[in-house]
Amino acid sequence: MQLRVAQLKDVDSILKLHNKYQIDSINEDDKKDGFVTTTFDKEQLEDIINKEQGIFIAVDVKEEVLAYVMSASWQYWSKWPMFAFMIDDLPNLRYLDKEITVDNSYQYGPVCVDKTVRGSGVLEKLFDFTLDYMSKRYEILVTFVNKINPRSYEAHKRKLGLEVIQEFQYNNNNYYEFVYDTSKRVLQR
Fold first, then answer.
1. I need a labelling partner for 183 at 20 to 30 A (CA). Which of 27, 132, 137, 152 fits?
2. Which pLDDT does position 34 carry in this prediction?
3. Which strands make up the sheet holding 55-59, listed edge to edge?
4. DSSP character at residue 104
5. Summary mean pLDDT of the chain
6. How far is residue 62's CA from residue 41's CA, in Å, rounded to a whole number?
7. What pLDDT is stored for residue 167 in this prediction?
8. DSSP state letters, 33-51
9. Structural domains in the chain?
10. First vs last Cα of the chain: how many Å apart?
């Protein structure tokens, strides 16, 4: 398995994986093992690749995407109402003895790992790989997990060591908001 920053040639394979585990299209039997709630189309994925180099992937020998992590600036995500809501709340949060801002933090996620490679360490490796890039620009990772997705909560809390900084409600959904110090690596704990 190879880890790399996604390129435009990877968009179709990313969408294939994404649609397999997106809440609106996931096989009902797979839902208990985690899902992605955010929807994306081809143009949006091309945009994040072109503007932010913001998708990190694990691919097999056939170049099929087996896992992805999206990570981008708050400025990039600000056009989505959920992220605008989170941006407005950043000044209320402190981590690493400082106020969290759009300049010292970024939005991590969504994340998707194919069930064929879950439990293999690919999440931890891809997370650290993503941090190698994002830590050059940001001190703090910020993300959220919907409370109806306990598998994602456990993966982020237990496997990756993210810290819950608060819980919040948005659009009739309840979320955990997580933070992480980007100078740390999971596989070196």
1. 152
2. 67
3. 2-5, 55-59, 65-72, 105-113, 140-146, 173-181, 163-170
4. T
5. 92
6. 23
7. 97
8. G--B-----HHHHHHHHHH
9. 2-188 (3.40.630.30)
10. 23
